[in-house]
């Protein structure tokens, strides 16, 4: 009798899972035999959050707990760098960006740093109470010029080295406050609302955010740009979706679930060969070589005891080859070897 009852429970659970996954493409991702990633020893418990390079060899890494590291060998080794910021503040350095020798760092709470000599010297700018929200993303535009996005969905631009900031958004309510925000290749922005219940797009020629509904009832984790300019979406439940129509931003594919392990994905990125990488909790690092149809687990990522929160590939005129990094919590970082 107990055996019959147990079998009925198992059958019911199987039916529930089957219904829940109906309409999804689920891939049983096998473990890969090799990896293009190599762990980097940062010698810190802080979370690395962003990296950018002045040239092929020299670059900076920033993160939580006032973390700033410098490399002179293209990102193989990193050394601590001191900044002139108040010692009493537990600053979170969240964004760094260079264009030639011009560079900016955005931090929380209310921190902006500027350099014109490739990071040898940094000047701290006093934002005071001028900007709504905390700095979230900063982009170097040109000499003495940058764009700053905040956690309130405000976008500002300076053309005089940060002495003055001009608002580019007249109404931030359409952003819903942000849990995540990215700048697109055409100079616009895409953000996920603070609750993850919708995402918004800001075109480079508009002054207001355009909100869009999520693709399902599951909250949105992240939205970003594919190499062709269309969008991708990560939702809770480890779901991946791709925009299916370039003329309709709300036309989404069925959800793809590469692996069911109870952890959500935090980021998606395309490597130089246009393979797709997905990063998430508990060392989840996956690759697809066929546009998301099938997936494989990365063995190096699987061996790292951390939650991966970001994937970054950099390919610009200052680098001999593409640089790539996977950011993990508690000082974990993977470097792309190709």
Question: How would you sum up this structure, described in words?
Answer:
The structure is a single chain. The protein is mainly β. The protein has one domain: Methylamine Dehydrogenase, Chain H. It is 7% helix and 44% strand. The protein contains two helices and 31 strands. The strands form eight sheets. It has a five-stranded mixed β-sheet. β4 and β5 form a beta hairpin. The longest helix is centred in the first third of the chain and has 19 residues. The N terminus is likely disordered.
Record the SSE blueprint.
Elements: H1 2-20, E1 25-26, E2 30-31, E3 37-41, E4 48-53, E5 59-63, E6 68-71, E7 79-80, E8 92-99, E9 102-108, E10 111-115, E11 123-126, E12 135-142, E13 145-150, E14 155-158, E15 166-167, E16 178-183, E17 189-193, E18 198-202, E19 210-213, E20 220-225, E21 231-235, E22 239-245, E23 248-252, E24 256-257, E25 265-270, E26 276-280, E27 285-288, E28 296-297, H2 299-302, E29 308-314, E30 323-328, E31 332-336
Parallel strand pairs: 1-24, 2-28
Antiparallel strand pairs: 3-31, 4-5, 5-6, 6-7, 8-9, 9-10, 10-11, 12-13, 13-14, 14-15, 16-17, 17-18, 18-19, 20-21, 21-22, 22-23, 25-26, 26-27, 27-28, 29-30, 30-31
